[in-house]
What does this fold into?
Amino acid sequence: MIQDILIGLVNVIGWSIKPLIEKEGIKHTSFFIFANTRYIATAVISIFILLACKRKYITDNINYKTIAYSIIVSILGLLSIISNYYLLSKYDANIVVGLIESSLIVTTLLISYLFFNETFSNIRIFGISVISIGILITFLSN
It folds into this structure.
């Protein structure tokens, strides 16, 4: 439980700092170049991590479905990050993140229910709605 909380904190802190560092990086190039070099850097780092793994671990855990889903997620991720960097090149990071994240919560909820058969309760819908409305009010009031 403590490990999960600590990992969750690393996740929150990483995702919170990431757009601020990205905005700084975009200042030195175009959003398109930055998005692609980011993914190239990620690929290089990932290759070194995989090389550090035992060969048996990799062969036991990789298959065609893993590769197919990885390609789909990579394409979606690249399209999303290019559009995100475009917005970051024009607007403050806190505005972009606030508006995108609140929209992301609602969109994920709908898509997960409609296409991936995930379940949720009315209280979850209410909570997500309150959070999203709060974020939108905060950022649209500027």
About this structure: The mean pLDDT is 89. The helical segments are 2-26, 31-52, 55-61, 64-90, 93-116, 122-140. The two ends are 39 Å apart (CA to CA).
